[in-house]
Amino acid sequence: MINNLGDQNSLLNQFMVEIRDEQIQKDSMRFRRNMERVGEVLAYEISKTMTYQPVEVRTPLGTAAAKTCRDQIVLATILRAGLPIHQGMLNYFDKAENAFISAYREYEKDGTFHINFEHISSPSIDGKVVILSDPMVATGSSIFMAYKALLEKGKPSHVHIAALIASKEGIDYLRKNLPMKKTTIWVGAIDDELTSKAYIVPGLGDAGDLAYGSKTTDGAEHF
Questions:
Q1: What is the DSSP pairing of strand 2-4 with strand 113-121?
Q2: Which of 151, 10, 162 lies closest to 86, judged by CA?
Q3: Shortest CA distance to 185 belongs to which of 115, 141, 134, 222?
Q4: Do 102 and 118 contact (CB within 8 A), yes or no?
Q5: Quick check: is 222 in a domain?
Q6: 26, 39, 70, 150: which is deepest, by most CB within 10 A?
């Protein structure tokens, strides 16, 4: 299932406008905060799909019936650009376990690139709900590589992919390569164009640089 939250009328659209705006982007603190807020919205929407159990809570005046989430959740992200979204989700899923994945694009002289995977730090995900976040789903290769790396830690009950912006090509790639019966994709927007260098247009630019400052790449572009 593909959930494009940008098609709905909500405050998410205001956050997305500011994230894309090249003038507002100059304030890296606000850019990070807007990414975090989108992460919070995504977390709230994803929470509606979880399984819940009845509980009773004792108040100063009596006992109230309530429901709490029964699922064990693992929040996973791709370093470094995914950190603000991850933090937004952690603000809501505050009891979740966490996984971090290092992956990057390495460019060749002819402009082509491949995805390099370096490291994963993750608990067991066996039988748990995994929420894998990354700001952009361009070709979908980074997300797919992160997904495969996570599978070395167990078999999840369900995987949610969460991103600010995806390209149509990236969405199609994930549809073809992920087990869609146990995968749900959540995005703030879907853009039509993907350039020959795999940049989404209109997109928003390099989320990692906008959030944390420019980097030296030596042929490798980290996200």
A1: unpaired
A2: 162
A3: 134
A4: yes
A5: no
A6: 39
Backbone angles phi and psi of 135, in degrees to 5: -60, -40
Residue 7 in tokens: 């098609």
- Pair of tokens at residue 155: 């078999």
> How many C-beta atoms lie closer than 10 Å to residue 222's C-beta?
19
Query: Per-residue pLDDT tens for 5-29?
Result: 999 999 999 999 999 999 999 999 9
- Structural domain boundaries enclosing 75: 2-49+71-106+114-213
N-to-C CA span, the chain: 25
CATH value at residue 27: 3.40.50.2020
**Token couple for 124:** 């067991």
On whether residue 64 sits in a domain, the answer given is no
pLDDT in tens, 63-122: 999 999 999 999 999 988 999 999 999 999 999 999 999 876 665 566 555 566 778 999
CA distance 215 to 203: 20
Instruction: Please tell me the total count of domains within the chain.
Output: 1
Instruction: Note whether residue 90 is domain-resident.
Output: yes
Please give the C-alpha separations between residue 98 and each of 47, 49, 120, 173, in angstroms, as whole numbers: 16, 19, 11, 26
Which two tokens mark 65?
């019936």
pLDDT in tens, 118-153: 789 999 999 999 999 999 999 998 899 999 999 999
